[in-house]
Every structure is written in structure tokens, then in C-alpha cells.
Design a protein that fits this description.
Blueprint (H helix, E strand, L loop, with lengths): L1 H24 L3 H16 L15 E2 L2 E5 L3 E5 L10 E4 L8 E5 L4 E8 L2 E6 L11 E2 L3 E2 L5 E6 L3 E5 L1
Antiparallel strand pairs: 1-9, 2-8, 3-6, 3-11, 4-5, 6-7, 7-10
Amino acid sequence: MNRPIAALAVLAWLAASCSQQQEAAEPNPAAQEAASSSEGAAKAAPPVTPSPVGTPVPVMAGGEAQLDACATAAVVSGLDPAGDNYLAVRAGPGTGYAETDRLSEGQAISVCDGDGHWLGVVYAKDDADCGLASPATARAQYSGPCRSGWVAARFVTVTAG
């Protein structure tokens, strides 16, 4: 009576061994497809490169047929004289952007654009006409003759507009 049970155990063990050897010799097609598709996707897809925060964001002006290209006049205010005592002008709306210039307390600026707590401004270091007093129906990147950039809104006081 022990012999038939032993024989069955040996047969089960042999069957299991053969099955495992067959699986090792013949890979699972579904597993192969998943592996090759993930490898193919990695090879075919270009690497994802996030755009850097430092990519300049142009200041946009205009967009209203009845208003000046930048209708809001303002001044730099609220700087800490015991601190840096200047307002950093940046290439985009945030501290991750490069500093392009520095403005002093009382500097006149024109507010043309906004993004959250940041303002896109145009300003002249001298008494130059920045060309913003006329309406511009199309919204477009400000391209001169004055300077432009982004400043923190908390250091700007609106004087007109």
C-alpha cells in the first residue's frame, strides 16, 4: 500500500520537475512581450527634459484698443534701507529666474503684465519715452526701447491707471 503512494509521489515530483524545466526552456510570451515593449518604449521615447525655470518669460504689452499699451503707472516702494535696498528685476515671474537688473526706491515703472505675485514691468533708467502711451490692439512681447522684466508685486505702488 505504501508502494502506490510512493509511486504517485514520484510521478508528481517528475511532472513538476518537467513542467519547471519546460518553463525555463520556453519563456512566457506575455512576459517576453511586456519586457520587450518596456525596453522598446525606453529606447523609442526621447528622454524627458523639464524646461528650466530660468527660461526667460517676455513681458507682454497691449491688447486693448482703447487703452495705452501699458496703462498702469507705478513706482518701486517699500524697500528695506537696512537690507539690500533694491528691487531685483528678473527674467521671469519667480525667484528661480535670473536677475537682470536692479531698481531703486521711487523708480518709475509701467505695469504691463502679471503672473500671480509677479508683475511684468517696463522702465527707463533715464527719461526715455518707452512707447507705451498709445493704444496697441494686439497683445505682443515688449521689445524696447526701454528695459523690461518681472518684479515682486509687493514692492510696487500704483500711481495711476
